[in-house]
Structure formats: structure tokens, C-alpha cells
What does this fold into?
Amino acid sequence: MQTNIEFREWADEHLPEVLKAQVLSFLRIIWPDGFTGSNRFRDWTSHPDLRPHHLLYAAGSQLVSHLEVVTTTVSVGGENYVVQSPTAVMTFPAFRGEGWAGRLVAAAVARIDAGQADVGVLTCGPHLVDLYSRAGWEIAPGATILAGEDGSTWVSDDVLLTRSVGPRSAAFKASLREHPMRVADEW
Ligand SMILES: CC(C)(COP(=O)(O)OP(=O)(O)OC[C@H]1O[C@@H](n2cnc3c(N)ncnc32)[C@H](O)[C@@H]1OP(=O)(O)O)[C@@H](O)C(=O)NCCC(=O)NCCS
It folds into this structure.
């Protein structure tokens, strides 16, 4: 039994099946809404179109904590922006409160800052804002999100957080104070 916990990262297509299965199982239990209807047998963690990049801690084949950075395009006030977002953030209960997710959020920030996105965005429950703000994410007060083809407002208590990355970040954040953020689908 391996007990030393190591940082690993993989592009989606290279994520070992044993680790992917643990991420998927966690998602299916914690966020069941993403696994209904035609997604009942979903075998992807984030849609491959979002080019997920997995950052994780594992002890051998045992997953401890995981996060994936996805890349997509959103529109605000009629302008398109390339955004990167940490999602599927999870730590198995036995390892919580030891800073694993915080370290993965910091690693995600380093990756996003070094990438080509216009801006970083994520949503989280109000109780988790501290986890992300410690790593440099900022609350976008009052921001609304329109998701899906029908553009129905994402009714949720989640908070939208942003991180300035490229030169268009300031325009994105200013526009977000006036207009909703439109996303093709929730991620
Ligand atoms: C949220 C989660 C990933 C945190 O993982 P973790 O490895 O324990 O996180 P860390 O040890 O790095 O940081 C813990 C911090 O997260 C925050 N936090 C985590 N869970 C919390 C909760 N239920 N209520 C309040 N704060 C919480 C606190 O700010 C805490 O800070 P502290 O160490 O100063 O107390 C983990 O609890 C989890 O998997 N939860 C279920 C899935 C989930 O909600 N994912 C986040 C989606 S945005």
C-alpha cells in the first residue's frame, strides 16, 4: 500500500483510468444533476471539448484530491472571451482540511496565469469563497450567468469569481457589472 501523496498532472486523454473512475464516481454522488437524462451513463468528467487538464494528489492509485482546468468561450455584452476555469474540485473526506485543495487551486492559478486565456472564472458556494480568494480570485458582485441554448438564467446561490489574466480582463470585469455572462453550457 502506497501512502506517500504525490502531485501529478495529466491532459484529459492521458488521465489513468483508475483515477478517472474515482473522479467520476465522486462527481456522480456529489453533483448528480450532471448525470441525468442523456448524461446518465456519462463517462467524461468535463466535456472533452473543454480540453480538461487534471491536477491532482494521489497515493499511488488512490485519489486524494483533484481539480481540472477547463477552457471555453463565454460572451459578455456581445464580446467573446476565452476563459479558463478550475472545476471538479474535490478532496476525499479522510484528507479534508489538510490543504490539498488549496494547493491544487494555487497550481491551477499558476497554470491559468501562464496560459492564453483572457480571464479566469469559476463559481462556488458562498462558504468556499475564502478557499479561492486566498489564491487570488475576486468576487464579481451581483454577476449573473445565462446558461444553455435557451439562455435560462443560472438560478443558483453560487458566487462568480474572476481572476485577471490577459489584457482583456479589465474590459471583461467592467462589462460583467453591466451584462450577464452567457455560457453555452454549465461546466
Ligand atoms: C471543498 C473541498 C474541495 C476542500 O478540500 P480540502 O482539501 O479540505 O481543502 P483545504 O484543506 O485546502 O482548505 C480547506 C478550506 O476550504 C474551506 N472549506 C472547505 N469545505 C468547507 C465547508 N464545508 N464549509 C466551510 N468552508 C469549507 C475553508 O475555507 C477551509 O479553510 P481552513 O483550512 O482555513 O478551514 C472539499 O471539502 C470537498 O471535496 N468538498 C465537496 C466538493 C466541493 O464542494 N467542491 C468544491 C466545488 S467549488
